[in-house]
Amino acid sequence: MIDSAVLEQAQAEARLLLTEDKDFGELVIRRDRSVPGLVLLRIDPQMRVLKQKRLVEVIDRFGDVLFGRYTIVEPGRIRSRPLRS
């Protein structure tokens, strides 16, 4: 599925978009594409246990607050900013 179709599906189904692909950040932030919320995992794909742990931490900590935000999850920090309406 191409990126624009993924964004459209997330929007149509009112779902968070969870990705490891930085291109989605480009589409949403710089090209002003709409999505209910975007979570970008920036953790080495080989570090599966850490990736899973950090994702669970973010969901437990922020939950529904992830909607309407662009959140970047890294090994040692979490960054988040509001999406444009």
Structural overview:
The protein is α/β, with parallel strands linked by helices. The protein has one domain (3-82). 39% of the residues lie in helices and 20% in strands. The chain has three helices and four strands, in the order αβαβαββ. The chain has helices spanning 3-12, 23-30, 48-62, and strands spanning 17-19, 38-41, 69-73, 78-82. Strand 1 (17-19), helix 2 (23-30) and strand 2 form a beta-alpha-beta unit.
Mean pLDDT: 93
The number of distinct structural domains comes to: 1
Helix content: 25-40%
Strand content: 15-25%
- Name the strands of the widest sheet in spatial order: 1-2-3-4
Q: Low-confidence parts, pLDDT < 50 over ≥5 residues? A: none
* Series of H and E elements: HEHEHEE
The profile of the biggest β sheet is: 4 strands, mixed
- Summed up, the helix count is 3
End-to-end distance? 25 Å
Whole-angstrom Rg: 12 Å
Structural class: alpha/beta
Shape: globular
Q: Please provide the count of β strands.
A: 4
Topology, pairings included?
Elements: H1 3-12, E1 17-19, H2 23-30, E2 38-41, H3 48-62, E3 69-73, E4 78-82
Parallel strand pairs: 1-2, 2-3
Antiparallel strand pairs: 3-4
